[in-house]
Design a protein that fits this description.
The protein has 155 residues and is of the alpha+beta class. The protein has helices at 5-17, 86-102, 105-108, and strands at 33-35, 51-65, 68-82, 112-124, 128-143, 146-150. Strands 1, 2, 3, 4, 5 and 6 form a 6-stranded mixed beta sheet that branches. A hairpin with a 3-residue loop joins β4 and β5. The longest helix is centred in the middle third of the chain and has 17 residues, at 86-102.
Length: 155
């Protein structure tokens, strides 16, 4: 089955999140990646941690001219982990997320990719827990009215 370019982008996000495994990164949340899981509606149980979730949310499509559509997409990524140094771990995870997602415009699949915000929440339950959320805006182009055909033309 053919994939829309949006799905190709999301597949690449999932692939990159799966790379988040220690010792190369500050977490091993890449072993448990969840597409579109809402951690508020379906919270992670401590036994599931570390875990990573992501979702593509608001999207807009505009006319880029010359038979090309520009897709603007919001991406939200979160990691839940635990550890005695939870605040420090959260800051390290934030850096890992920025690096693994933003290093090369998702392998050239998008022409614009910027982080728009981060949040770190630390709390103590039976042990120290940390939740990190990073949001991104990204843009890619397809042929007009054809979300399956990527357009890599000039920006």
């Amino acid at each position: 089955m053919a994939k829309t370019h949006r799905q190709v982008v999301i597949d690449e996000v999932a692939r990159r999140l799966a790379l988040l495994v220690a010792p190369a990164y500050s977490t091993s949340a890449g072993r448990s990646v969840h597409d579109s899981r809402d951690p508020l509606g379906e919270p992670f149980d401590e036994k599931e941690l570390p875990a990573c979730w992501f979702r593509d949310t608001n999207a807009e499509i505009g006319d880029a001219g010359a038979g090309v559509d520009e897709h603007s997409l919001n991406l939200e990524i979160g990691i839940h982990d635990f550890g005695d140094r939870a605040p420090e771990i959260g800051r390290l995870i934030e850096g890992d997320l920025l690096k693994v997602i933003g290093s090369d415009k998702l392998g050239g699949l998008v022409h614009y990719l910027r982080p728009t915000g981060t949040a770190i929440e630390v709390k103590r339950e039976t042990r120290w827990m940390v939740g990190v959320r990073v949001t991104f805006d990204l843009k890619f182009r397809t042929k007009a009215f054809d979300p399956y055909t990527f357009h890599a033309g000039p920006e």
